[in-house]
Specification:
By secondary structure, the chain is mostly helical. It has five helices and two strands; from the N terminus they run αααβαβα. The protein folds into two domains: about 15-75; about 95-130, no CATH class. The protein has a two-stranded parallel ribbon.
Length: about 140
C-alpha cells in the first residue's frame, strides 16, 4: 500500500522560493520575447510599402483625443433649451389632426405588419384624413 501524505513531498522554503522565481522569470521572459516580436513586426509594416498599402490607415491616438475635445466643445456650445432626444430617434414627427395615442398605434401597426423594429422605421408625418373631406374631393 502506498502512503502519500504531504510530509513526504515537503520542500524546503528556499527551494520553493527559487522554483517560484524561476517560473515567474520564464513567464516574464516569454512576455518580453512576444513584445519584441510585435515591435519588430510593427517596424517591418512601417517600412514595407506593399504591406502598408494593404493595411487600413488608422488615426494617431493624439488625433482622436483632439477630435474628442472638439466634440465636447461643440456639445457645450449647443443650445441648452432643447430636450435631449431618445436613443435611436431619427428626428421630428409632425402630427396633423392626429393625437399622439393614435399615431403611436399607427406606428406600431406599421412596424408589426412590415416585421421591422420600430426604431428602424422613420415617420416624417402622420396626417388624419377625414371621410367628409375625402368625399368632397371625389
Amino acid at each position: 500500500m502506498i502512503n502519500t501524505t504531504l510530509c513526504e513531498f515537503a520542500m524546503p522554503l528556499t527551494d520553493a522560493l527559487l522554483l517560484s522565481l524561476l517560473g515567474m522569470g520564464i513567464v516574464f521572459g516569454v512576455l518580453v520575447i512576444l513584445m519584441g516580436i510585435i515591435w519588430v513586426m510593427g517596424k517591418i509594416m512601417e517600412k514595407s510599402p506593399a504591406i502598408a498599402a494593404k493595411m487600413p490607415k488608422l488615426p494617431k491616438p493624439q488625433d482622436l483625443f483632439k477630435k474628442l475635445k472638439k466634440t465636447e466643445e461643440v456639445a457645450e456650445t449647443a443650445p441648452q433649451n432643447e430636450e435631449p432626444k431618445a436613443k435611436g430617434t431619427c428626428g421630428e414627427l409632425v402630427l396633423v389632426k392626429t393625437e399622439e395615442r393614435d399615431a403611436a398605434m399607427i406606428m406600431a401597426i406599421v412596424a408589426d405588419s412590415t416585421g421591422t423594429p420600430l426604431n428602424e422605421l422613420r415617420f416624417k408625418s402622420i396626417k388624419r384624413v377625414d371621410e367628409d373631406a375625402e368625399k368632397e374631393t371625389l
